């Protein structure tokens, strides 16, 4: 199949990086980094999804000590963490991939000053004291159409992993340290071998909350006007760009997101446009933006495509994210709506997603119940990978080496999709 006829599989030059296709693995919280240190299974997870010339963005890495609140999320603030990331980065580079490290500063969730924690589930469950956090966030039957709601809960998870008290407002004198946390984390990411850094300015965390007028209730130079509310975001971007170079610096934004009325903005497009213009002036490499949440239209759920004005205002690589399938992604590239498209759940369930798009192979369905558990195998296990190397539909000898290399004592492998009927005409390999 000619890849030039598939917009998502056309090459693209992103600054110094020559990409072979437009399909991006976005940051996906794995919640499997024990004691905030990346584990060996991360090597398999990321290298499975790496392709020569493909862009991969790591799960969010704490720019500061998040151990009290997020003990299973990775960090990049210590030397030990830097060393643990090196073999993961090397595995991606060995396959020719481009690997960016997302860094975040959770703000209130970085210490004991937070009383509540984000969980996902049905809105009607949030006041159900008999429902555990695990049940709330693992409701699969409400996930596919974005019926789920993000909300805070007042009780701790059963394992007491997350603790909290009464939140306090960020002090003005603490902001320089936060900016320096990002600067140091960016330097650590480069020392670990990452090709660049994506700053998390989305999803209701510190930077995002200050940007949104419905969440920011401060009364200082970081509040009020759009310029003031975006001040911290731009100060962080500038600090990171000074540390590692603007050509290795990026940011992810979600101007349209509003998690249960706590992180919304009254004029999200104006917010996105302001940031796009300001980021252009700083000369960063790419801008990664999330679409609005899906809405129900009749019997269908659709994502309102709203990013084109922001894309036009930004003079750099633009990555669109949120609810995309292959058809939507091809259309976005073909119509210059985006330069690249990130696929979260599809890439998670289909490690060989670019290949599947190329040959129009069936896609595995994601399993939401495995998204955030701590199991190092479940949700990480080798999923069926379409290899397209069985000539005349007959497995070849190299398959013995391919599978045996990935086999471990007690490990669980699943073969590539094997036809139950004659597929020679459509899928000869």
From TrEMBL:
Q: State its Enzyme Commission number(s).
A: 1.3.1.42
Q: In which pathway does it act?
A: Lipid metabolism; oxylipin biosynthesis
List cofactor names only.
Answer: FMN
Q: What CDD domains does this protein map onto?
A: OYE_like_FMN
Q: What sequence ranges are listed for the domain NADH:flavin oxidoreductase/NADH oxidase N-terminal?
A: 8-363
Stretches that traverse the bilayer? none
What reaction is this protein's catalytic activity?
Answer: (1S,2S)-OPC-8 + NADP(+) = (9S,13S,15Z)-12-oxophyto-10,15-dienoate + NADPH + H(+)
Signal peptide span: none
- Which top EC class is named for this enzyme in its record? oxidoreductase
Q: Which UniProt keywords apply?
A: Flavoprotein, FMN, NADP, Oxidoreductase
Q: Which InterPro entries match?
A: Aldolase_TIM, OxRdtase_FMN_N, Oye-like
Could you give a GO molecular-function term held by this entry?
Answer: 12-oxophytodienoate reductase activity
User: What protein family is recorded?
Assistant: Belongs to the NADH:flavin oxidoreductase/NADH oxidase family.
Looking up PANTHER family in the UniProt record yields:
12-OXOPHYTODIENOATE REDUCTASE 2, NADH OXIDOREDUCTASE-RELATED
The molecule here is called: 12-oxophytodienoate reductase
- Which species is this UniProt entry from? Fraxinus pennsylvanica
Q: What is the lineage of its organism?
A: Eukaryota, Viridiplantae, Streptophyta, Embryophyta, Tracheophyta
């Amino acid at each position: 199949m000619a890849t030039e006829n598939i917009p998502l599989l056309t090459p693209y030059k992103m600054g110094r990086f020559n990409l072979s296709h437009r399909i991006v693995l976005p940051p996906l919280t794995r919640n499997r980094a024990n004691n905030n240190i990346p584990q060996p299974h991360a090597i398999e997870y990321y290298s499975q999804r790496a392709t020569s010339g493909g862009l991969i963005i790591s799960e969010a890495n704490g720019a500061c000590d998040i151990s009290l609140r997020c003990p299973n999320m990775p960090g990049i603030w210590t030397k030990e963490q830097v060393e643990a990331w090196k073999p993961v980065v090397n595995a991606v580079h060995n396959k020719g991939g481009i690997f960016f490290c997302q860094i975040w500063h959770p703000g209130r969730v970085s210490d004991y000053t937070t009383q509540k924690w984000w969980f996902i589930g049905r809105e009607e469950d949030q006041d159900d004291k008999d429902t555990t956090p695990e049940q709330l966030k693992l409701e699969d039957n409400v996930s596919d159409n974005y019926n789920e709601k993000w909300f805070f809960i007042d009780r701790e998870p059963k394992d007491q992993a997350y603790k909290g008290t009464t939140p306090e407002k960020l002090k003005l004198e603490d902001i320089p340290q936060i900016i320096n946390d990002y600067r140091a984390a960016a330097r650590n990411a480069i020392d670990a071998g990452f090709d660049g850094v994506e700053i998390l300015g989305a999803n209701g965390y510190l930077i995002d909350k200050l940007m949104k007028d419905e969440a920011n209730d401060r009364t200082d130079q970081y509040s009020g006007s759009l310029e003031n509310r975006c001040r911290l975001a731009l100060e962080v971007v500038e600090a990171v760009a000074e540390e590692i170079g603007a050509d290795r610096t990026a940011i992810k934004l979600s101007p349209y997101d509003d998690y249960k009325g706590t992180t919304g903005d009254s004029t999200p497009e104006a917010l996105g446009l302001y940031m796009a213009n300001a980021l252009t002036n700083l000369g960063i490499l790419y801008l990664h933006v999330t679409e609005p949440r899906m809405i129900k239209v009749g019997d269908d759920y659709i994502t309102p495509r709203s990013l084109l004005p922001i894309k036009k205002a930004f003079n750099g690589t633009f990555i669109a994210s949120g609810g995309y399938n292959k058809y939507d992604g091809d259309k976005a590239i073909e119509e210059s709506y985006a330069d690249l498209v990130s696929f979260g759940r599809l890439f998670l369930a289909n490690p060989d997603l670019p290949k599947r798009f190329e040959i129009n192979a069936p896609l595995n369905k994601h399993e939401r119940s495995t998204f955030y558990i701590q199991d190092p195998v479940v949700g990480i296990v080798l999923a069926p990978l379409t290899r397209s190397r069985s000539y005349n539909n007959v497995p070849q000898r190299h398959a013995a080496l391919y599978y045996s290399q990935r086999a471990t004592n007690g490990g669980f492998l699943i073969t590539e999709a094997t036809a139950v009927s004659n597929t020679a005409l459509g899928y000869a390999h």
